[in-house]
Amino acid sequence: MKYEVLNLPAGLKCDPATGQISGILDNPGVYLTTLHVTNRIGTAKREFKIVCGDKLALTPHMGWNSWYVWENHVTDKIMRDAADAMVSTGMIDHGYMYINIDDCWASKPGSKDSTLLVDPRDGNGKINSNKRFPDMKALTAYIHSKGLKAGIYSSPGPLTCAGHTASYGHEESDIDRFTEWGYDFLKYDWCSYGQIAGKDKSLEAFQKPYRQMGKILKSLDRDVVFNLCQYGMGDVWKWGGEVDGHSWRTSGDLGFELNRIYEVAIRNCGFRQYSKPGEWNDPDYIQIGWIGNASKQGIPELTPMPAAMQYSYMSMWSLMAAPLIYSGDMSKLDEFTLNVLCNPEVIEVNQDPLGECGLVIKQDTERFLMVKNLADGSKAVGLFNRGKTKAEVVIDWTKLQLSGKQSIRDLWRQKELGVFNQKFSAQVPANGVVMVKISKR
Ligand code: GLA
Question: Is the model's pTM score more than 0.85?
Answer without folding.
Answer: yes
